[in-house]
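Figure 3 (text version): structure tokens given as input.
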């Protein structure tokens, strides 16, 4: 199942990409909301291959996700591979400059089920696809607005 959202942000492409690549911020945010985050690599500079193990309580269950930075092209693309017990996902962000002060952020999430129960759950989710698309787009709009606010503030 795929989700896609395009959001225009009043900020430069460099600023938008820098916000997407602020790994320390996202690590500390995850810990503030109760997740355990363990960095699995020793890279000193951002690059493909960076990995994290994230453990937390989500939707009534303890979950573990292995997150790998799959692609890192500054001011252009950043993507992650997420592996969990029953689902795999690819999360890709494309940063598209529209002008010096405006950027389009395109987010694509592709989810694949690993087992039978996950396939059944994903089939059920497909029935509510329009609702899920709206929720995803709303969250991406909020995320894009926060990136824009950081540029202005």
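Below: residues designed for each position.
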């Amino acid at each position: 199942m795929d989700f896609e959202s395009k959001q225009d942000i009043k900020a430069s492409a460099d600023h938008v990409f820098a916000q997407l690549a602020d790994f320390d911020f996202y690590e500390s945010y995850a810990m503030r909301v109760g997740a355990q985050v363990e960095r699995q690599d020793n890279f000193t500079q951002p690059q493909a291959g960076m990995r994290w193990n994230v453990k937390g309580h989500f939707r009534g269950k303890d979950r573990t996700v292995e997150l790998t930075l799959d692609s890192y092209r500054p001011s252009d693309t950043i993507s992650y591979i997420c592996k969990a017990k029953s689902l795999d996902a690819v999360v890709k962000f494309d940063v598209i400059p529209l002008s010096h002060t405006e950027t389009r952020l395109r987010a694509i999430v592709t989810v694949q089920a690993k087992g039978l129960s996950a396939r059944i759950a994903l089939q059920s989710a497909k029935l509510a696809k329009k609702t899920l698309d709206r929720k995803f787009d709303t969250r991406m709009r909020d995320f894009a607005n926060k990136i824009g606010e950081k540029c202005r503030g």
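The radius of gyration is 16 Å.
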